TrEMBL record:
<feature type="compositionally biased region" description="Polar residues">
    <location>
        <begin position="140"/>
        <end position="149"/>
    </location>
</feature>
<feature type="region of interest" description="Disordered">
    <location>
        <begin position="1"/>
        <end position="149"/>
    </location>
</feature>
<feature type="compositionally biased region" description="Basic and acidic residues">
    <location>
        <begin position="14"/>
        <end position="42"/>
    </location>
</feature>
<protein>
    <submittedName>
        <fullName>Gas vesicle protein GvpQ</fullName>
    </submittedName>
</protein>
<dbReference type="InterPro" id="IPR049647">
    <property type="entry name" value="GvpQ-like"/>
</dbReference>
<feature type="compositionally biased region" description="Basic and acidic residues">
    <location>
        <begin position="49"/>
        <end position="113"/>
    </location>
</feature>
<feature type="compositionally biased region" description="Basic residues">
    <location>
        <begin position="114"/>
        <end position="123"/>
    </location>
</feature>
Length: 149
């Protein structure tokens, strides 16, 4: 019902006149009743708004939880992909290492150069040819005049 309703207006005027002509104890009783009704109406309105806000908060919470769950699944998938890539790369490195080890330790062709030598096979300083041995000096090099004779 809107405020322009003629029945409501007439009822409002009638109640106002009855209140003005009523004795004081009845007026006090009407005031108390109106205060209680106003409180109930106000509390009811506040309660409705609180319930509505609570529902909105619950919906927002559910939506955020769903978004977080989706993002967590995406992150988990990306992490799994990265781990699989690392696992593949490590597998390739392991295979390459095993292949290298087989090549280095195997003597299939009888090629001793491929085998790694131990510390005892490394030449000492005394067994390395020095630059003074078996190197000709400028006096030992033949000259063009020496060649003609």
């Amino acid at each position: 019902m809107s405020k322009d309703n003629p029945v409501k207006k007439a009822a409002g005027k009638l109640a106002k006149e009855a209140y003005e002509h009523a004795p004081e104890p009845v007026k006090d009783k009407v005031k108390d009743t109106l205060k209680d009704k106003a409180k109930e109406k106000m509390v009811g309105g506040i309660q409705d708004k609180a319930n509505e806000a609570s529902e909105k908060l619950g919906k927002a919470k559910d939506e955020n939880a769903e978004k977080v769950h989706d993002k967590a699944e995406d992150g988990e998938g990306k992490a799994q992909d990265a781990l699989h890539k690392v696992q593949d790369k490590l597998g390739k490195v392991k295979e390459a290492g095993e292949s290298f080890q087989e090549k280095m330790s195997g003597d299939e062709d009888g090629d001793k150069k491929k085998q790694l030598k131990g510390v005892k096979h490394i030449k000492s300083v005394t067994s390395i040819k020095s630059s003074t041995k078996h190197v000709k000096s400028s006096n030992d090099i033949k000259n063009y005049t020496d060649m003609s004779s």
